[in-house]
Specification:
alpha+beta, Phosphorylase Kinase, domain 1, 2 domains, 5-stranded antiparallel beta sheet, 12 strands
C-alpha cells in the first residue's frame, strides 16, 4: 500500500482508511487518547469501526515489532485488536502505521469510580488469564522487543543494569528526579543483581493501565490495547509497571489476589524492581517532550508507585 511521504497525519489517515475499508468510509476523526502516536477512528457506512495509528519518526522502532506482536497475541487468544493492515516503509522518512478493528467499550479509567468490588475482582481475574496467555508467547532474549519474537539483550541483568545506569546518568545530569532518589537508584543498581538473575524471561505487558483496559456494557473485560511497551523479562513486570503509576488503584490488590489464586503470583521484590525499572527507563527521556509534542509530566508525579518502590527496595537491600 503506497502513500506520499509528505502527507500530514490527518491526510494519511484518510488516505489509508479509503484503501483499507472496501465498504466505504463515512468519517475519519482523531482520537484524543493517543499521546505517543497519531491515532484516528475510521467509521464505515456499515457501522464498522477501525483504528489507524501512525507512528512518529522517533517511534519507528516500535513499528518493527508491535503489529506482529499484536497478531501473535490475537492468535493466542488474548483480548487484543484484530489487525487489518500495517506497513513499515524501507525509507526512514516515510511514516509507519498499523490499522486494526476498533474494540467497542469504555476504558477502565472512565468506569473505575462506578465499579464495585465484585466487578473489580472479575476484571482482575480476566486480566490475569490474559497475562498468563501472554507469558507463554515465546520471545528470544530479554528486555525490550526489537522484533515480534526477539528482545534486545542476551540476559536479564544486562538489560536491567543498562536501564538503571542510563536512568541514573540522565537523572543526575538533567534533574528529572531529586538527588536522594538518584542515590537510591545507585544503591539498587549495586544490590539487585541476584534478584534480577531470577527473572523468568516471560513476555509481559508494560502498558497495563486503566486507559488501556476496555470494558463492555456489563463491565466485563472487552479488550486490551497499546503494546508498545512490552518486555521479555518477568511475569511480574505487568503488575510492577501498573504499581509504578497506580499504587493505590483498587484493581492492583485484586490483580495480585487473582494472580495468586491462578498460580501466577508476583514476587514482591520482582514487582518493586520492575516499578523502579519503569522510572529508570523514563528518566532517560523525561527531559524531552512526548513524540507528538506534549511536555512530559515529572517522574515523581507520573510514577508515585515507582518512588515508593525505590524507597522500599533501598531499605530492603540495606538490611539484607
Amino acid at each position: 500500500m503506497t502513500c506520499r511521504v509528505a502527507m500530514a497525519p490527518d491526510e494519511l489517515a484518510r488516505h489509508l482508511a479509503g484503501q483499507l475499508i472496501p465498504s466505504g468510509v463515512a468519517t475519519v476523526e482523531p482520537l484524543a487518547e493517543g499521546v505517543m502516536n497519531h491515532m484516528y477512528l475510521a467509521r464505515t457506512r456499515r457501522s464498522e469501526s477501525f483504528v489507524i495509528r501512525i507512528y512518529p519518526a522517533q517511534r519507528r522502532k516500535v513499528a518493527r515489532y508491535e503489529p506482529g506482536l499484536i497478531q501473535r497475541l490475537y492468535a493466542s487468544g488474548c483480548l487484543v485488536p484484530e489487525i487489518v493492515g500495517h506497513h513499515l516503509p524501507a525509507s526512514e522518512s516515510a511514516p509507519a502505521w498499523v490499522a486494526y478493528r476498533y474494540i467497542e467499550g469504555v476504558t477502565l479509567a472512565r468506569r473505575a469510580s462506578a465499579l464495585g468490588p465484585r466487578e473489580i475482582r472479575n476484571i482482575a481475574a480476566a486480566l490475569v488469564e490474559n497475562l498468563k496467555t501472554m507469558s507463554r508467547v515465546p520471545i528470544r532474549g530479554f528486555g525490550g522487543l526489537v522484533t515480534y519474537d526477539s528482545a534486545d539483550e542476551a540476559d536479564a541483568w544486562e538489560f536491567v543494569r543498562r536501564s538503571l545506569a542510563g536512568g541514573i546518568d540522565n537523572a543526575a545530569r538533567n534533574g528529572v528526579v531529586d538527588r536522594a532518589s538518584v542515590e537510591r537508584l545507585q544503591r539498587v543498581l549495586e544490590n539487585s543483581r541476584r534478584d534480577v538473575e531470577c527473572f523468568d524471561g516471560a513476555l509481559a505487558w508494560g502498558d497495563l493501565a486503566p486507559t488501556n483496559i476496555l470494558l463492555d456494557r456489563e463491565d466485563r473485560l472487552a479488550g486490551l490495547v497499546d503494546f508498545e511497551s512490552s518486555f521479555a523479562l518477568d511475569g511480574a513486570l505487568s503488575a510492577g509497571y501498573f504499581f509504578a503509576m497506580n499504587p493505590g488503584h483498587p484493581l492492583l490488590e485484586a490483580l495480585l489476589e487473582a494472580a495468586h489464586a491462578a498460580g501466577f503470583g508476583f514476587q514482591d521484590a520482582k514487582l518493586k524492581l520492575c516499578a523502579v525499572l519503569r522510572a529508570s527507563r523514563m528518566a532517560k527521556f523525561a527531559h524531552r517532550s512526548l513524540p507528538i509534542g506534549r511536555p512530559q509530566s515529572p517522574i515523581a508525579i507520573l510514577l508515585p508507585g515507582a518512588m515508593q518502590a525505590l524507597e522500599e527496595l533501598d531499605r530492603h537491600y540495606s538490611t539484607r
